[in-house]
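Field: COMPLEX_INPUT
Field: COMPONENT_COUNT = two
Field: RESIDUE_TOTAL = 648
Field: MODE = joint
Values follow.
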Amino acid sequence: MKLELRNNKDFWAGLLLIGMGSGAMIIARNYRFGGVTNMGPGFFPTVLGGLLTAFGLCILIMGLLRNVKIQRGPSLRVLITLMGALILFGILLEHAGFLPAMVTLVFLSATAGREFKVREALVLTGVMTFIMTAVFIWGLGLPYPLIKGF
Amino acid sequence: MELFHNLIFGFSVALTGQNLLYCFVGCLLGTLIGVLPGIGPLATIAMLLPLTYNVPPVAAIIMLAGIYYGAMYGGSTTSILVNLPGETASVITCLDGYQMARQGRAGAALAIAALGSFFAGTVCTIIISVFGPPLANMALEFASPEYFSLMLMGLVTATVLGHGSVLKSLAMVVMGLLLSTVGTDIFSNVDRFSFGISELLDGIPFVIIAVGVFAFGEIVSNLSNPEERVLFTSKMGSLYPTRQDLKQSVGPVMRGTALGAFLGVLPGTTPSIATFASYVLETKVAKDVSRFGKGAIEGVAGPEAANNADAQCKFIPMLTLGIPASGTMAMILGALMIQGIAPGPQVMTRNPDLFWGLIASMWCGNLMLLLLNLPLIGLWVSLLKVPYRFLFPAIIAFAAIGVYSTKSVAVDLYVAALFGILGVTWRMLDLSPIPMLLGFVLGPFMEENLRRTLQVSNGNLGVFLTRPISLAFVIVSALILMVMSLPAIRKKRHQIGD
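Field: COMPLEX_OUTPUT
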């Protein structure tokens, strides 16, 4: 039987855990490990990183033995659009103000949907921006300027 | 009849027009904000906290308690309707509540959640006033070894909830513990894993992980596989639970209340442990376990009662010991300090009006929630009729504000985006994020108590086994782990047999 790694679920899960676990161990080497009596800041993270690596290794081996396929992957387009919208929201909120940030966030998120229609999305953006402003800025009095730098 | 006297005194404080009004406003605002998807009780209280600054101390804490209960109930509502837990405790409600909603029984699920919570609230009001002081004395005897073993037990229980492999669930618990070490180490002031980002020095806020992994992860997977997103049945069925529903819920509510009340008193446990424990208990008690995860009403009734019982009893360690037992309690503690009240054992003697007034208003708050929510169930259910393409940008907008408003730094949004990506990857690889979340919440307490224990015991690990209460927790953890691995072995055998 030919070993197929590209879609092997447990292989990648194991690899991810090993990566994060050993990464944590390497970074934690900068913190004092200490002893059992007097644990340093590096003790807990190092032990946990080791445990995570060990678990990852077991899961990886199980993956090689069982070869369970990844069934459904997320759409990369959706993921990038939504996370991009979130990051853009943060940047605009700090530099351009609440209104431009909110308009961008809602409209850009809406484009990630399958049944996207420009007019519908524009109306939604308008309505949501108004609701968010009413609830959070006028209602709860969050101290964010609506427009900045103009 | 000192207790009777105290309760009457409490009600005389709570039932003044002014305090009743603050209690009502708190419940209403708490539910309104808490019901917004992606905003949990923690974010809700954080957002509403400034409103209480200019209110007299007793009224302020009564209002905060109202906000707390309202937000908790609002959180359950979003878990049931849109499968978005605002807090770890509501994750459990998602399991069966959301399935009930999908089957057109959202109304019944919401009503049972409200009724169960009210029952738990009523019982716990009595428990606090009767057993509060002696229970606090018992919890006072817990030292670091007991806390550590208790949390160990909580984490082992958490693995029960990860679907599929026990190994992966345990790995995710460790992942959560590891994530919780981000930020300044309280013992040595060394900043760990902050990568030079000063905003990370206080650790990764819970809201970010909750919103990033759960809210965003859910939306991304819904949009990626639209054909798999089973639509709700167009007819919502009855808005109210049937006689059969009520009959099935009585047992779970009673057991959930008992569990929640017991676990709630112990500081360091989170409401999630109570809800997890209640859910596990119900699956063990039930005749037909296969119904769970597919819309079993017991899976909503038990954990919801446990959640409310726990939430209410969390006030005991806070008011008597000054120990915040959860993130939300820490927030209330902070609010008390702003009011110039030093929480601790002296609260009961120095501010009896505050202590007993709060206890009485807890019951009033619960009653108000019931009166507020039963008529509004129809309104919450109608939320479901909004098409998803309108709903998801709105959820993202609320969630983004929820993340940003806790500290008002944009870095939190970027970290949330990172966790969104991580959450989607975890889901794809069948790495359940629920055990991770619990590990993350308990991590700091665990590390602190482990280090303190070993400092005191001179590095002797046997101390966990020589102290009877600690030993009991360790034994239970080992038992759960053993039972847990049995079905896994069976499943594996089954697969090999295939």
